[in-house]
Amino acid sequence: QVHLVESGGGLPQPGGSLRLSCAASGFTFGSYYMTWYRQAPGKERELVADISSAGGITTYADSVKGRFTISRDNAKNTLYLQMNSLKPEDTAVYYCNGGVYWGQGTQVTVSS
Question: What residues does 65 pair with on adjacent strands?
Fold first, then answer.
């Protein structure tokens, strides 16, 4: 059975940092392009960042470029999103995705 389980969400202040993790099981994680998405209240889900199967290619939404870093550890079947210089507009539920597989999401609320 496939599982993608996000963790690491929280209530950082503006300018703060968080590291999200997504633990994968039940599929060949290392063969999949992986993506972080987010969905803010009342808005559509948007792509935040993605990473190639071996980790050598990454892309970012313009809104997070230079602040967020996506990475993966295929030996641990885990995807990461390091988020720095957080802004209130980064507030959203963050989801990891691989192919047709989705996690349940983790809430990030940036507020002073």
Answer: none
Distance CA 55, CA 50 (A): 9
pLDDT of residue 20: 98
Burial label for 44, CB within 10 Å (0-12, 13-18, 19+), is exposed
Amino acid at 93: V
**Average pLDDT over every residue of 79-95:** 98
- The arithmetic mean of pLDDT across residues 2-13, rounded, is 96
- What is the rounded distance in angstroms from the CA atom of residue 77 to the CA atom of residue 111? 31
Query: Which residue is it, tokens 């002073």?
Result: 112
| Alpha-carbon span 25 to 46, nearest angstrom | 24
Asked if 6 and 101 touch (Cβ cutoff 8 Å), the reply is no
User: Which pLDDT belongs to residue 3?
Assistant: 94
What one-character DSSP code corresponds to residue 27?
Answer: S
Q: Which two tokens stand for residue 33?
A: 């392009």
Question: Using an 8 Å Cβ cutoff, are 1 and 55 in contact?
Answer: no
What phi, psi does 42 have (nearest 5°)? 75, 5
